[in-house]
Amino acid sequence: xxxxxxxxxxxxxxxxxxxxxxxxxxxxxxxxxxxxxxxxxxxxxxxxxxxxxxxxxxxxxxxxxxxxxxxxxxxxxxxxxxxxxxxxxxxxxxxxxxxxxxxxxxxxxxxxxxxxxxxxxxxxxxxxxxxxxxxxxxxxxxxxxxxxxxxxxxxxxxxxxxxxxxxxxxxxxxxxxxxxxxxxxxxxxxxxxxxxxxxxxxxxxxxxxxxxxxxxxxxxxxxxxxxxxxxxxxxxxxxxxxxxxxxxxxxxxxxxxxxxxxxxxxxxxxxxxxxxxxxxxxxxxxxxxxxxxxxxxxxxxxxxxxxxxxxxxxxxxxxxxxxxxxxxxxxxxxxxxxxxxxxxxxxxxxxxxxxxxxxxxxxxxxxxxxxxxxxxxxxxxxxxxxxxxxxxxxxxxxxxxxxxxxxx
Length: 408
Fold this sequence. Notes:
Helices cover about 65% and strands about 0% of the residues. The chain is mainly α. Helix 21 packs antiparallel against helix 22.
């Protein structure tokens, strides 16, 4: 019995049927078209058309998992699938009957996706049992069912599948998978600043550096007691001038109208306050700098690891436009290795060389194990040595790396 190489045999459900010789390509094409038109899962439609029995569908789902997890190759599965179908028994029973040595390769249940999600705290055991029952009746994979039922975020499923793949490749162990996913849950479910959100007036002037958080809290209390607008209270306390209040209200209106993002409004107000410039001058200054889709500060928020300085990181997110501008401020609250790893992952995500989930998992592994981020990326096979060399040679990267070295 020939074992598979991890990650090399992830076949679609229909392709497995063809490889086993259970269905012709033309029949599969017809079934796929009918499934698409009716909105039914392929497995259920094949059962309705009499092309599969219930236990054959269940065995095919198990076969798909064994192929995906790198336990067996399709050629080794074929005789056991035939035997299981003829006898009406489970695929595992057929494998053990025909190949007694297969017992050594039966995967630990804890390494299965559903169990990983349970032990990482994303779902409860009853939800998994219900999803597995639906999996057996529809042919859909358990992760997809949990997403369709709104019991799991798509980003979490992607991260868990990536972690499971690393586990089967031997890059990380089960405890590291669970630790990473548990911490990742804090980041993926945390509130990250929405660049298009309309910030309340208090947050806008506070993030722009005009008023302290304590002053805003006091002013909000007075506003609540007296029924006066917050802006009027700030004027009475002489915390804002008329011109700055008017500028803040105008910027708020522009964000609401979709003309500016929240972070652009914060930076414009900060420019007006610090440089004593006009609204048009401030907007011209910040609009000349295009904003990036992902910054280092956003990435650090998503990791869920820096809860103690989250407020400060979010402030940096709103008041800076480029990752390079953020680094000196972030260096005062995040250690050099973590900042380097976050910068590396952010760059690779922005270049579409990593998915967000891959970047977060790589960062977590590096953070929790102390391993160099580049070594992990190479072991996982997510980035080539050539890519890392090109990144290291880039002028921007060399400048960034030097900024992590503390002054003598």
